[in-house]
Amino acid sequence: MAIRRIAIEGKDEVLRKHARKVDRFDKRLHVLLDDMADTMYHADGVGLAAPQVSILKRVVVIDVGDGLLELVNPVMIAQEGSKVDVEGCLSVPDRRCTVERPEKVTVRAQNRHGETFEIEAEGLLAVALCHETDHLDGILYIDKMIEDVTDMPEEDEEEA
Ligand code: ZN
Predict the structure, then answer these.
(1) Measured between alpha carbons, how far apart are the two ends of the chain, in Å?
(2) Helix (H, G, I), strand (E, B), or coil: what is residue 6?
């Protein structure tokens, strides 16, 4: 397991590229998932997508406080409602912005062994799922931002 360098908006073009679907659920993928979890926890983030560690594969890790979620080839299959919340991103340091996202989402993904599962989420987990799957298509939350937030208390920060 290792901490990888997090790509930064404006410096690392990789953040704007399309990630490729994973078709091999091998040791290499498992090392990537382990390293991504390490990197996310080390940076105090709630989510991390592979392009953020300069790997163009459709791989995401999330932990909003309920344990580690690993998603390979995640696809948003349903969404409902809408809600505006503050987001941050490990690849866009020192910024927080409000973004409108669906209130509830259903995502289909594969686990590290290639088995398909579905997850239904709301609240912070729904936001994280949207934020991270966007990363796989080269989309950053600042592309969708409503406005910058400057007066946020430190303890409310969530970065993904
Ligand atoms: Zn992000």
Answers:
(1) 20
(2) coil
Strand positions, DSSP E, the chain: 47-49, 59-62, 69-80, 83-89, 92-101, 104-110, 116-122, 145-148
Opening angle at CA 52, ends 50 and 58, nearest 5: 25
pLDDT one-digit tens code per residue, 24-53:
999 999 999 999 999 999 999 999 999 999
- Using a 10 angstrom Cβ sphere, with 0-12 exposed, 13-18 middle and 19 or more buried, the burial of residue 65 is exposed
Average pLDDT, the chain: 95
Give the Å distance between the CA of 151 and the centre of ligand 1: 20
Q: Which residue in 70, 132, 158, 159 is the catalytic one? A: 132
Q: By the 8 A CB rule, do 23 and 31 touch?
A: no
- Distance from Cα 26 to the centre of ligand 1, integer Å: 26
pTM beyond 0.90, yes or no: yes
